[in-house]
Amino acid sequence: MPVRDAAATLEAAVRSVQAQTWTDWELVIVDDGSKDATPALLAHLAAQDARLVVLRQTASGIAKALQHGGEACRGDFIARMDADDVMAPQRLELQHAFLQAQPSIGLVSGLVRFGGDGAGYAVHVDWINALRTPESMALRRFVEAPVAHPSVMFRRRLLAEHGGYCEGDFPEDYELWLRWLEAGVPFGKVEQELLTWNDPPQRLSRTDPRYSVDSFYAMKLAYLRRWLVAHAGGREIWLWGAGRITRRRFDPIADLITGFIDVDESKRGQRRDGREVRLADELPPRDQSLILGGVANRGAREAIARHLISQGWVEGVEFLLVA
Domain total for the chain? Predict the structure, then answer.
């Protein structure tokens, strides 16, 4: 659990760990240069429970705090937690049992309850909760992070085998998931609500430029490029979404794009960025093409997938949602 200036929420988060039905745990808390009452509160809580291990570092950022904490963990399994969230009592027990029963799974999440009041994030929580199989989480990873960071438990060996948290101009958790999924690590999910995922105004994903839309796209497109090189097999790559915003977001892989698909009748037969625009009723040959569903508007991804599946296209083989 990394923490900085979270005195208002920290105790509730720690108490939810202490209330777990699985009691054989150690909570490693990394104080990343807090200036509020957090250090005093941590000292008070640790004095009451020897299972709390408090580490301190000068303010260095969440990636370094996470890496510091991960290196200090001694168990075979590491569960993530944030200082403003609350665990359900059976979270550790159920996730531990899941990983013990399924040795091929490297990381397990669970369903999360939205604890904020922002409608946009609530929609995101619904989307994450709908991804419940290793296949769906792997397939949809180029849309968004397929698991909520503070909801996961993973095998500690993955840090040594595939690397831990990296610091850079990108969201540290999403980069880690893409790297592990690229390496073939299967993700699983307990189909029970295991975490209340709060969304306070000061949340990093709302305030830090590393979590901006541009940062997300720049990072995930580097991974998408490698996926396309490995899976396209010489096929043409068509981007569904001929609008300016979609085209600009996918500029980093523009050299791989043959043409665009759109639903706007006024674009039929036109060209964008020197490439042909086709409509949904004139798809390219299925055996010679791979379509990227790049439209980010709410509901558009699902509509693209429904249309392509109705035409016999197979997700993950002949088309991929990447918005």
Answer: 2
